[in-house]
Each structure stands twice: as structure tokens, then as C-alpha cells.
Amino acid sequence: xxxVVAKGINEAVQVNIPVLVQLSKHASSLKxxxxxxxxxxxxxxxSPFKGRGMEFDESRLYNxxxxxxxxxxxVTARMGKAYTKLYHEERERPxxxxxxxxxxxxxxxxxxxxxxxxxxxxxxxxxxATHYGDRVGGIVFSENAHHELKPQRGKQxxxxxxxxxxxxxxxxxxxxxxxxxxxxxxxxxxxxRVARPGSLIFLVSDFRxxxxxxxxxxxxxxxxxxxxxxxMYDQLEKSLPITxxxxxxxxxxxxxxxxxxxxxxxxxxxxxxxxxxxxxxxxRRNRMKLVSCSTQDDPLTVLQTGL
Length: 307
Hints:
2 domains; 10 helices; 10 strands; elongated
């Protein structure tokens, strides 16, 4: 099985276009299908669309027998005659990839930054969607910058996303603005406004600062879309070292971790388990997929297994 893990220090803490473009060669080995087939479309495979799966085509004069629910009232008012809307079957599924670039994603004690892993995950998903004839769009966001990409067919859709993953302002720390969005509920609210019903949505994040409001929003989003949550974590977030005292700094603030304190160590481990269990329960209740990936894992292998 092929591997796409980071091969050097730079690749572990930084993303670049050539590496993400090269992931296209793995597209055919990664299928974004689902176990549950709800509707058969005329694309390259059967797909679990939710919604009618139809796009507006044009308006024409109303004919007796046409469904009155499809009357185009704007054109009717303008022309003075009744017009009806015509729809055609949607041939490509919108695939929306939501990528978290907040500060907590720029962390790892081994492997690569969660943000680098997220970019590789997103690129693999984008190339797979393109390979199977889907349209690719997404949202790439940090606390200070939020960029939306409408779903687009062909390689151009994947390349647009990759360009945003690499050139997002978060990689240039001095380039910030006055906005500071951290809460998961606000981030999901933005996604709700741009994701069309019937989309396949990948949420690639460590899901920090996701309260009950944010999780409820994800539940509502899943009613009309297929949701896959990709949970990123580092081994140090899962459990502390067995024993010892460790000094940790972000360059400004500094804390000391006392791994000799068994009560505190167990409480730390329990918080990670509880967060993961919360995501598992959310996915089970709403029939969503949950894929967990540590900073040491190979993203291609994780996606091939999880999907």
C-alpha cells in the first residue's frame, strides 16, 4: 500500500503545492462512496444523495399539466405570462472539504503538524472527488481568515483548493486582520450557509472549542448532506508521558507538565477519551462517518480504511 507521510522536517511543518499535486496519483485508490445507497444518479457510481438531486436548467412557457409548484413567479411577473422552471438531473455530486487551520492545528510532537496532515487529507479527498467526476469546493479557515470555494468540476476544482491550502494567510503569521473566530458554532454556521443539500461534506479538524451548539449544528447539517468527520490529534494530546516533568512553551508562555501526578495524568487522558466518545456518539446518532487520524499516521492509509 502506498504511503504519503512527510519525508523531511520542512514537509512536517509546511505545505507546498508540488507535494499536494503529486497526491493525485493516489486518487483512483481512494473511493468516496457510501455503504448506504439512497438514490441512483447518472454519474460514475451510485451515491447516497439526500435531496432531489436536480439543478435548475431553464424557464419556458407554462403548459397545461405542468406542476404548478414549479412556476417561475419572477419570470411570470416580468413577461405577463405563466412560465415554469425546468430541472435536469445533477450529474456530479458536490464534495465540500472544510479544513481547520486554527492555532491548535499547528502542533505535533511527532510525525507532522495537524495542519499539514489536514492539507494532505484535503488534497487526497479533492483528487479522489475529481477522479470520480464530482465537483470540489470547500472552506479553509483560521481564527483570522476564512476562504470559501464554490464546488467546481474537473482538476481546476482540486487545484483551487490546493492553492488555498498552501497560500492561506495563516502560513504568514504577520498577515492578520481584526477578525478572531474561534468558536465551532460560528464556523459551522458559515458552512451551513454555503453547503448545498445533497453534498458530501468532510470536516477536517481537531474539533477544539466545539460545544453542544456546534455539535447540534453538525447534526442539522447531516439531515440533508452526507458528513464525514476527520478527527486530528497528536499522541501527546491523547496521553502524557509515563513519568517526568516537562517544560512546554509556545515561544511566549510556558508551562510545566508533571507526569508524576497520577491523578492529573489520568484526568488528562480521560478528557481525550471523553472528547472522542462525544464525536463517536454524534456520528452514531446521525449516521455519519468518523475517521480518527494521529499526526504519525499515513493519511492515505487512514482514508482507505475509514472510507
